[in-house]
Amino acid sequence: MQIHTPDWVKHAVFYQIFPDRFAICTAQGSLDLRPSLEPWDQAPSLQGYKGGTLWGVAERLDYLQDLGVTAIYFTPIFQSASNHRYHTHDYYQIDPLLGGNEAFFKLLYAAHSRGMKVVLDGVFNHVGRGFFFFNDIIENGPHSPWLDWFKVEGWPIAPYDGDRPANYVGWFDNRALPELNHANPAVREYIMRVAEYWIRCGIDGWRLDVPFCITETGFWEEFRTRIKAINPEAYLVGEVWTHTRPWLDGSRFDGVLNYIFAGATLAFTAGDQIDPNQVGDRDYEPYPGIDALTYAEKIQLLLHAHPWSVQLTQLNLLASHDTARLLSMIQGDEAAVHERAKLATLLLLTFPGPPSIYYGDEVGLPGGLDPDSRRSFPEPEDWDQELLRCHKQLIGLRHARMSLRVGEYRFLGEDHKTYVFARIYEGDVLIIAVNAADSYGKIDLESVGTRLGAQPGYILFNTQPPVIETTVESTVEVESKPEDESVDTNNEKPVVKPDPIEVIWTADNLFLALPPRTGIVLT
């Protein structure tokens, strides 16, 4: 069966925003509610608000465009009584703390005018206790007209008293999140109309929260049919961490959040330096560490699990609001942690399918598991400029080369912790090599020249800080040592340069020698 997926997604770079923590507006365009907020730079709490708004996001569109972002995925923005807004009160109203509907529509227009897409988070399995239909049950008990919209099991219900049985089904027994009764046709129709309404308003897709919790036959098939009838290019991406195949047969979603890629990539690039305490009960296998051969096997299984048109619309990521942040998952000295983070970023931004960057990861924002992973976006003086350089260069390279977006992914070889592959599109060949070891990685890729039909000519990208730009002919060596005592005559400070990278091309094969924790892109 031919599976159609949105073409724009295949070329996109996503940026995930947790709205309360990204940007405070400096020139409010609507009513200033003057709420009581936590200090912006204070560690986040489970229930506190920082005051980020959609007006603030609109003011940062220049930053996002300069980074190379072409699509924004927002965690929930509908009216709610929680800072993460997964406790929906009203699906038709944007939370007033975020600026309300006025701020959203102005942001949507501003994003679209720059060619940026906007994807919203659809939480349709459960709602908050303040959701009107459930609140009516709280007020009127068995006399409420909305009883069969939920899964009430007895009386009285106890939405706030933890010492008594809730007497209704909450998501994972959380009484703050009453589950909707999707077997009720009225509930089903209500959700469909909510989803259709926002698509008609101009959003470019839905990220669907815990879709596996809605088990009614045909629900997601109908959802897809109705959304695609309005906009065939709308993006439907599901939060499915494992066992993704049933969701991607063309009848439900265009893609899923690719935690399988994230787990394998973290296990390879960080190895045994992943902190198990920062993984918790997440089941996407970012540890224990794996070698390049195991990584290659996992990636090949992943690439062959779905049709190519679906692979190109998988939403690839390394971290999100549901995980610890990249820099906090990895243990070790600061320099090595950053080097490993850059290796993971290189693999993310050269993999088939759109990359998704969790806000702040590009400037080195740390954070453990929730709520720590939802820190406020830092001030410019606290940005990690080298990590930002890495992101900007790789995003720019992805936009510039069709091979990185839709080209063939061809595994070339591995040796211990060195992994090499190519992205190929109509004669444009890029070779990506990653050494995740703490020692030199050397690999002789036998007959790779014959297989690729091309010789690499340039080092386009290097995860190590730039020192020398070099052309590759028969041999390339970046002449430097980690503790070079050469002196800059302007300020007489020692100049520290990265280890040398060797690329030797013979008639039929490519020899690579990469310094520890280094990745490169060749063409």
How would you concisely characterize the structure shown here?
By secondary structure, the chain is an alpha/beta fold. The chain has helices at residues 7-10, 54-59, 61-67, 100-113, 132-140, 185-200, 219-230, 259-269, 292-303, 308-311, 326-329, 334-349, 385-400, 402-406, 448-452, and strands spanning 14-17, 71-74, 78-80, 88-94, 117-122, 205-208, 235-238, 255-258, 315-317, 355-358, 408-415, 418-425, 428-435, 441-445, 459-462, 475-477, 502-505, 510-514, 518-522.
Task: Report on the architecture of this protein.
The chain is of the alpha/beta class and 523 residues long. The chain is 27% helix and 18% strand. It contains 15 helices and 19 strands.
Would you tell me which CATH topology of the largest domain applies? TIM Barrel
Major beta sheet, strand line-up = 1-2-5-6-7-8-9-10
**How much helical structure, as a percent, in the residues?**
25-40%
Low-confidence runs (pLDDT<50, min 5 residues)? 468-496
Q: Kindly give the count of domains.
A: 3
Number of DSSP strand runs: 19
Name the features:
523 residues; 3 domains; globular; Oligo-1,6-glucosidase, domain 2; five-stranded antiparallel β-sheet; alpha/beta; TIM Barrel; 19 strands
List the helices and strands and how they pair.
Layout: H1 7-10, E1 14-17, H2 54-59, H3 61-67, E2 71-74, E3 78-80, E4 88-94, H4 100-113, E5 117-122, H5 132-140, H6 185-200, E6 205-208, H7 219-230, E7 235-238, E8 255-258, H8 259-269, H9 292-303, H10 308-311, E9 315-317, H11 326-329, H12 334-349, E10 355-358, H13 385-400, H14 402-406, E11 408-415, E12 418-425, E13 428-435, E14 441-445, H15 448-452, E15 459-462, E16 475-477, E17 502-505, E18 510-514, E19 518-522
Parallel strand pairs: 1-2, 1-10, 2-5, 5-6, 6-7, 7-8, 8-9, 9-10
Antiparallel strand pairs: 3-4, 11-12, 12-13, 13-19, 14-18, 15-19, 16-17, 17-18
